[in-house]
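--- STAGE predict ---
source: upstream dedup step, 1 unique chain passed
mode: sequence only
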Amino acid sequence: MMTLAFVLRLGAGIYLTLALPTHGYDDPQQNAGYVFTDAYRRDTEAWGFTLSATPLWDIFKAELDTDQYGGLLILSGILYRYLSPDAHRPLLIILLAASFAALGVPFLHRAVCQRWEQTLADLTCWILVLYPDSILFGSSQMREPFLIGLLCIAFWGIVNWRQNRYTAAAAFLIGWSGMMVFSTRMGIAALAFLIVWLWLEDLLPKSSAWQWLGWVSLCLAGAGVVVLGWQWLHTTAAWDILLTERNSGRVQTAISELAGGRFGPQFIVIYGLAQPVLPAAIAEPALALWKTIAIMRSLGWYALAPFLLYGIFSVWKAQPGAEKRILIWVAIFTFAWLLISSMRAGGDQWDNPRYRMVFLPFLALLAAWAALRALHLRDLWLVRWFVVEAVFLGFFTAWYFSRYFQVGKRLPFWHMVAWIAALSALVLLSGVVWDLGRNFLKRRQNRIHRL
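--- STAGE serialize ---
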């Protein structure tokens, strides 16, 4: 898994660096071989610091336009200044990013093995290794592969706390402090998630006084995070939502048609959860290279989404005890993080996946647990969630094809949404009725058998 993770990301990074100047769009970023604008600007600024006589530590004091935290910028500057002072070699950063992405795999695997079983660990790590967005971001000069690798190390430290506290504490501090260097906000979110995990695992002191003190502390800390986080999120999300409306005439029209625009933020959040939209990736005109990237990213998200939905609604039926508490926490945090990512990114097809990517190890864990549970129980609810997704994709595929290729008749947007909602509700309600009827018949048969 480590080898494949490393080879896929480094190989994709080398290919895109060489292919974008000839097969991408004609702009400075792609002519230089960069997929992401942020990576291009940050890497260019890091090389500029290398050429100058500025001490690298002064990067943290400078007014930075490309890296608000400075961690990846100073790391890039160190690599260029001491390993490549004679020429700008962006593949050095990709090499390091691919290494960090691969490094997280064994820590995640060992942590899930220690807490659950190897089958779940295998499937979780395969999702992490093969998820298309993970490969794309891991093959670029972005923060995400570093954050994911460090998060896996910190996570293993939490799970390993009972076996070896000194090693676990060292791993947690290395992983978490590294995250703080690359992104303070992500580091704080990871700290909150892992502390609650540790508490729910029942590894902290079990006396009633300590437990009450812990719950009170967690509640107060949670309330503080919600209040402060909401103030920041409300301000930034309002601006991002406004940018999305301005940049997309279709989105602006859809929002204005929805009760005069009063539900614009809610629409943007749902729109962001659907990103990257698979029908749009297939239908929208683009160069072959970018169309391939868009389709692969969309396929990855729409393959993962039904498992996440099934997992979020199924963890409540897990085995009682610490396992159930932890899985419920993973599901709640995953759902909340997806909403926050969508709200913060304003429905953007790049920023939504980028924000949600940081906690991909736990999205993969929840999806893997859901897949194994559905397979073990032969649970039809996973099939029903796939049917709901098929309804969504079917209508939007027809809508996009009629828009770009004039194939068939295009429904008004909100009429189509109403059809999707109605048919999806029918699928889910029929599932509830089916389960209730089947349980009723089983109880009746058992009663007859006892008589």
